[in-house]
Design the sequence.
């Protein structure tokens, strides 16, 4: 349940409530809005009816959260969350574009891409150092060396970095360089990893499992949130369906639906969703029109030679054309790029 405090509730009244909630064996999660504070009463505490808290002074009303996901829900936090990364805000009016190669392959490749995507208007550089490949015989990423190259690209361009982390023990290593930790589709339900990033103080780009329902996706996000990290960006990257033309099927409905169900910002990955370079720009336009807060796009200086995901990567010229073509779409829905 959530306890909505009166707008003029004092700090003493708030701390009385917090003390009581903890005494009953629940965890307290605070959401401090512009107008009022909401106390989330979460966990397996003693069964009490909402009326129990209504008599406390400073309390306006008590509402049960009916959805299975609590901290991710709009009921817990009615206003949209904004995730801030070095002066870039995701969840605000500006649609944030993250771009870069699927994997960091070499110094030249990452630096050339970083400068070009920055020039075209991207705010965040993507690049995998640890790669989750379907085959153990495929390129697995440059690992630590890849992180060093990302750091150099960050220092040279000033761009923030998003990079995937695949194991709990790698969280501090990747977190030293990455400003946003990416959890990939294959790890959406890796609960040890979710707990580790939940306890780490860096934003998380959290990808939907390729076979997960939206409810499973939000329940998994709850693992990160309930471990103390509220800086979660939900990312739809396509799901498995019977369709074979595309690598995955982009579930565009998730954008307005997640915006209704959750306060967390929503990102779309048009590259993995389609698997086809020719579809990336049109699908990105649709995503922005439907209300996406960010896009993460694969870009490579020479996609034909990419060590992973070349078929879905834009070249540098195509990416800069994409940025130009997205601008009027964003303006049409009162956003900007
Ligand atoms: C990636 O971003 O390169 C990646 C592996 O994504 P996903 O987890 O969505 O497949
Ligand atoms: Mn990829």
Sequence:
């Amino acid at each position: 349940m959530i306890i909505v405090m009166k707008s003029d509730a004092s700090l003493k009244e708030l701390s009385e409530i917090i003390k009581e909630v903890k005494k009953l064996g629940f965890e307290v999660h605070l959401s401090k809005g512009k107008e009022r504070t909401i106390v989330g009463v979460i966990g397996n505490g003693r069964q009490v009816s909402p009326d129990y808290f209504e008599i406390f002074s400073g309390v306006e009303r008590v509402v049960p959260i009916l959805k299975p996901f609590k901290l991710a829900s709009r009921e817990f936090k009615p206003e949209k969350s904004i995730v801030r990364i070095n002066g870039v805000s995701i969840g605000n009016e500006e649609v944030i574009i993250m771009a870069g190669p699927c994997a960091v392959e070499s110094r030249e490749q990452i630096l050339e891409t970083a400068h070009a995507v920055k020039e075209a208007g991207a705010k965040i550089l993507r690049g995998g150092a640890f790669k989750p490949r379907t085959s153990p015989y495929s390129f697995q990423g440059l690992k630590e060396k890849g992180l060093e190259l990302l750091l150099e690209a960050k220092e040279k361009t000033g761009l923030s970095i998003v990079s995937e982390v695949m194991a709990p023990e790698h969280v501090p290593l990747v977190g030293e360089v990455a400003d946003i930790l990416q959890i990939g589709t294959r790890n959406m339900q890796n609960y040890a990893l979710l707990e580790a990033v939940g306890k780490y103080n860096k934003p998380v780009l959290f990808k939907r499992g390729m076979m997960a329902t939206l409810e499973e996706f939000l329940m998994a996000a709850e693992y990160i949130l309930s471990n103390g990290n509220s800086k979660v960006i939900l990312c739809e990257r396509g799901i498995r369906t019977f369709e074979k033309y595309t690598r995955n099927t982009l579930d565009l409905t998730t954008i307005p639906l997640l915006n209704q169900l959750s306060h967390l910002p929503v990102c779309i990955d048009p590259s993995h969703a389609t698997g086809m370079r020719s579809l990336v720009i049109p699908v990105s336009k649709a995503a922005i029109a439907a209300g996406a807060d960010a896009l993460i796009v694969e870009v490579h200086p020479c996609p034909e030679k990419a060590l992973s995901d070349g078929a879905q990567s834009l070249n540098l010229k195509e990416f800069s054309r994409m940025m130009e073509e997205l601008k009027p779409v964003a303006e049409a829905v009162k956003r900007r790029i």
